[in-house]
Design a protein that fits this description.
By secondary structure, the protein is mainly alpha-helical. The protein has a domain of about 80 residues: Winged helix-like DNA-binding domain superfamily/Winged helix DNA-binding domain (Arc Repressor Mutant, subunit A, Orthogonal Bundle), CATH 1.10.10.10. The protein has seven helices and three strands. It has a three-stranded antiparallel β-sheet. The protein starts with 15 loop residues before the first helix and ends with a helix.
């Protein structure tokens, strides 16, 4: 049956958010620290950082929908691993900017390769074009 065909009568098709939640659970089950070389939350956090431009801690918390205390715990972990560092903002000494270190960039590259295999397992039934469409739609649905 084509993907855009209506479901047979009596068949319940879950809503998009239910399906996304189920996919997310699959990712969490498969993308373990043993697979990625880091926790999934650390992976997501490192993806938001750059070596050359620091990101304000508050902006990270907002963008990742994390409380400040949870973000600090995650930052403590990646900082102790040598993957990131917090520096005072020269324009506002009250703020911290978070930078990914070269070691963090290397760790992220390795984790991204592992995440490609996770994506293959989770989205293996989709064609490359369907995956690209899904990625574009999800990116569009997320707030800036």
């Amino acid at each position: 049956m084509p993907a855009d065909a209506p479901a047979p009568a009596g068949t319940h098709v879950p809503g998009a958010l239910v399906l996304l939640t189920r996919l997310s659970r699959q990712v969490y089950r498969i993308a373990t620290e043993d697979v990625l070389g880091m926790g999934l939350k650390q992976f997501v956090l490192l993806n938001q950082l750059h070596e050359d431009v620091g990101v304000p801690q508050q902006q990270l918390a907002e963008h990742l929908c994390l409380g400040a205390n949870i973000l600090v715990l995650l930052l403590n972990g990646i900082e102790s691993a040598g993957w990131a560092e917090r520096r005072r903002d020269p324009a506002d000494r009250r703020r911290h900017l978070v930078h990914r270190t070269p070691a963090g960039t290397a760790a992220l590259a390795s984790a991204e390769r592992a995440m490609d295999s996770v994506e293959d397992r989770v989205l293996g039934d989709l064609s490359p074009e369907e995956r690209a469409s899904l990625r574009a739609l999800l990116a569009r649905a997320l707030p800036d």
